[in-house]
Design a protein that fits this description.
By secondary structure, the chain is of the alpha/beta class. The chain has 5 helices and 5 strands, in the order E-E-H-H-E-E-E-H-H-H. A hairpin with a 5-residue loop joins strand 3 and strand 4.
């Protein structure tokens, strides 16, 4: 939530960004289980602007509990899918990061459709579905992982890049997983070679 000053963000709400009275959309990436549901607790502003969330399984569990969605202690793939599909009633697109398993995309659209139509409207024209996209080959090998710092940011950047290129869901996630894989194999949070992946 912006303070009265220009461009400053109140640190008590960071990393939560609310855009009030503007026609903007928000992607929320929780960064910690302790604060995963906080964006939903500070007021109703998120309801009309929040289009994407990208929690990991533990953060998804906390968010699910906030919305009184039954959650499992184990949060295996089936439990994760169940929580994400119920969460769609509140947030249109849930992208759950699953570590070595990949990414689970949950939304009311087909995988061969882009996230937005030509008019910039979010596509939500079918029943709720979840699709698992496995991690890029080799990305999950522990001996090849140099750092996990920045992996989620690179994944998000890849999807947003794909959205701007009007790629369908499959294309967006493909770019995103390649970007995340690059990040895992770099000591830099955002690898210098990320630009090469995004240009392909």
């Amino acid at each position: 939530m912006k303070d009265g000053g220009k461009g400053s963000v109140n640190s008590s709400y960071s990393p939560y960004i609310f855009v009030s009275h503007l026609e903007r959309t928000i992607w929320y990436e929780p960064t910690d289980v302790k604060t995963a549901a906080k964006i939903f607790q500070v007021g109703p502003q998120w309801k009309n602007v929040l289009h994407f969330i990208s929690p990991n399984q533990n953060e998804l569990k906390i968010i699910g509990e906030h919305f009184n969605i039954p959650v499992s202690e184990s949060m295996d793939l089936m439990a994760t899918k169940s929580v994400a599909e119920q969460l769609i009633e509140h947030v249109p697109v849930v992208i759950t990061t699953l570590g070595a398993q990949g990414v689970l995309v949950t939304r009311k659209a087909l995988q061969n459709e882009p996230f937005y139509d030509e008019c910039g409207e979010l596509i939500a024209d079918s029943s709720v579905a979840s699709r698992l996209y496995p991690a890029v080959d080799g990305a999950e090998k522990a001996n090849e992982i140099l750092s996990v710092s920045g992996c989620g940011d690179c994944l998000t950047a890849g999807i947003i890049y794909g959205i701007h290129k009007n790629l369908d869901e499959i294309g967006c996630i493909s770019v995103a997983l390649k970007a995340a894989s690059l990040s895992l194999r770099s000591f830099d949070a955002v690898p210098r070679t990320l630009r090469d992946v995004l240009r392909r």
